[in-house]
Amino acid sequence: MKTRKLLAILLASTMLGLVSCGTDKNEEAIKFFKRGNFKLKEQEYNEAIHWYDEAINKKPDFADIYNNRGLAYQKADKPEKALEDFNKALEVDSKFWEAYYNRAELYFNLGNFTESLNDLNTIAKVYKDSSFYFVTVGNVKTQIQDYSGATAAYEKAILLNPKNAEAYTNHGYLYFEQNNYAMAKQDFQKALAINPQQHFALNNLAFILSEEGKYQEALPLVEKAIFLKPAQAYYLNNKGYILLQLGKLEEAKETIEHSLRIEPENAFANRNLGLYFQKKGDAQKAKTYLEKAKKLNPSISIQ
User: Fold this and answer.
1) Taking Cα atoms as reference points, which of 14, 33, 20, 9 lies closest to residue 92?
2) Got the DSSP string for 23-89?
3) What pLDDT shows up at residue 15?
4) Distances in Å between the alpha carbon of 74 and those of 3, 5, 219?
5) Are 139 and 111 in contact (CB under 8 A)?
6) What's the pLDDT band for 301 if we cut at 50, 70, 90?
7) What pLDDT digit, counting tens, does each position of 219-242 carry?
8) pLDDT tens digits along 92-115
């Protein structure tokens, strides 16, 4: 499930306060901070971190710098460093709401859903009109299996912004997990009408169409999802299954094996490779993969 990061913006009051001090260090801190922000937007995360370091050397009590450096560390796949910076930002300014939001998303990515929800609850009043805030709340509640709470959060997000494609996608996912494919399909179609780049919606809609036996319609959707997210094992496996049903066996095998190289313990990919060998008449190899699929997920259908 995709989530949105907030890039903290230097508030005008903060800027004025720093300039009014008239010190060279404050002016240099602002200059380095702006350079860091530019590099962050350009996705040059190590460069951004360098300039934020320079800014902190000049102004160590500047909460915005810690917050934005935390985002850069998070993007650079250094979550521990990111957490340290978000904590420091809040130590400097306990009402820095963007830092709470960013820390909540970091906790979510780390699988610490309790702490994530605590931070989101702290800023609930501040973000009461934010559609994307409620998507984030819904994502956390989905992970802790509070499905009624997640549904309410996504519906609030849609109410606040009927053009929020992510809210429709994730709302549809809840229906999808309940095997209510008709309602899920509606949500995924709404999401894609707003934003055709919603790869999660594309893949799940392709799955639903394949369940309806509409393999020719499903294939271009899952291919677009893979184009947008090439290393997603589930998307590759979904394509492999669709290709099996279309009789494109060798292309299916190659795609499923690609999925398994990314995620070897994917029960559905093992099942689908077993189905490939069934279709090829290799009963022994089919049995090996189907038994592995069952071991990984006893509830899986091997038909």
Assistant:
1) 14
2) -HHHHHHHHHHHHHHHHHHTT-HHHHHHHHHHHHHH-TT-HHHHHHHHHHHHHTT-HHHHHHHHHHH
3) 36
4) 14, 10, 34
5) no
6) confident
7) 999 999 999 999 999 999 999 999
8) 999 999 999 999 999 999 999 999
The three-state secondary structure class of 216 is helix
| Segment 139-153, tens digit of pLDDT | 999 999 999 999 999
Q: How far apart are alpha carbons 261 and 274 in whole angstroms?
A: 16
Model pLDDT, residue 23? 64
Count other C-beta atoms under 10 Å from residue 178's C-beta: 11
HSE toward the beta carbon, residue 129, CA cutoff 13 A:
0
End-to-end CA distance of the chain: 29
Structure tokens at 6: 């907030």
User: What letter represents residue 93's amino acid?
Assistant: D
Domains, the chain, in order of start with CATH, read: 1-123 (1.25.40.10), 128-184 (1.25.40.10), 196-303 (1.25.40.10)
Nearest alpha-carbon partner for 225 in 216, 234, 215? 234
Which tokens in the block code for residue 120?
Answer: 């989101």
Structure tokens at 277: 């060998």
